[in-house]
Specification:
two-stranded antiparallel sheet; globular; 121 residues; 434 Repressor (Amino-terminal Domain); mainly alpha
C-alpha cells in the first residue's frame, strides 16, 4: 500500500512497540493501527503527524526512524536526482537566457522599462 504504512510496520517491529501501545498513546481504537500495520488503510497526513508525536513519546529513536523512512528517502531521492542531472532550475535558465529589467523581472526582448535596448547600451 503506502509509504507511511510500510514505515510504521518497520518501526513498530524494529523497536518492539505493540499496535495496542501505539493505539493507547494515540487515544484511538487498536483496529485503526491494525489496518495501517497490515497496509489495509493509509493514515492521513494529519494522522502521520500524530503518529510521529506518539512514537516520540514512546521512543524518540523510533519517531526519528519513522520520519526518515517516510520522508527521508523521498527527500534523498529527489535531491540526488536533481544533483545528478546537473540541470539548473527553470528560473535560472530563464534569467541566463534573457535580460532582467531593473525590477528583477525577466524581459525576453532585452529592453529596460524605457524601451532602450540593454544589449546596445
Amino acid at each position: 500500500m503506502g509509504r507511511a504504512s510500510h514505515a510504521l510496520k518497520q518501526v513498530l517491529e524494529k523497536f518492539g512497540i505493540s499496535q495496542n501501545r501505539l493505539a493507547v498513546t494515540l487515544g484511538i481504537d487498536r483496529s485503526a493501527v491494525f489496518k495501517w500495520f497490515h497496509e489495509q488503510r493509509e493514515p492521513t497526513s494529519e494522522t502521520i503527524v500524530e503518529i510521529t508525536i506518539a512514537l516520540k513519546q514512546l521512543n524518540s529513536e523510533a519517531a526519528q526512524r519513522f520520519v526518515h523512512l517516510y520522508l527521508g528517502e523521498l527527500l534523498e531521492t529527489e535531491a540526488g536526482s536533481e544533483g545528478e542531472t546537473g540541470e539548473a532550475s527553470s528560473e535560472s535558465k530563464i534569467a541566463s537566457s534573457d535580460e532582467v529589467n531593473p525590477e528583477g523581472e525577466v524581459n525576453p526582448e532585452g529592453e529596460n522599462l524605457e524601451g532602450e535596448n540593454l544589449e546596445e547600451a
